[in-house]
Write a structure and sequence with these properties.
The protein is mainly alpha-helical and 167 residues long. Helices cover 59% and strands 8% of the residues. A hairpin with a 3-residue loop joins strand 3 and strand 4.
Length: 167
Amino acid sequence: MTATFGSAATSFAALVHEIPAGAWGEPGLGEWDVRSLVGHTSRSLTTVRSYLRTTAERVDITTPEEYYVRVTPSALGIDPADVAERGRQAGRELGDDPTAAVDALVSGVMSELTTVDNPLIEVIGGLGIRLHTYLPTRVFELAVHGMDIARAVRVAAVLLRGVTPQS
């Protein structure tokens, strides 16, 4: 699963390199501009990094599908406006050179993944999930939002082998 996640992350970074310089402020998805959409998508990298620093007490989620049922804004009582704002904030945090920032995130998370096996991590809501159960949810997010980004900036989304929304 780590290799598939790496392919998805690398594909996302390559797509970010294709974003035209003047497109970052254009409409992205819903209320997000392209920068915010890329920021939201980059959280698929940053959450892995931050969750690797956690340890859960027990396994609460056993499948990627269950993750999506249990970890939704409505299930956790999270205001969708807060999710939208986190995307905008993540976009701002990409700084003056978003492509370099995404490259650094990919490099960092992949480096950290080489140091672990399949730990029990704690995700949003304090729920426990094995890393290899969580990573497919990030592959899905990178693939789907990669297609959203490509559509927004009118470039072809090329997903690497093994990276499809159903991976």
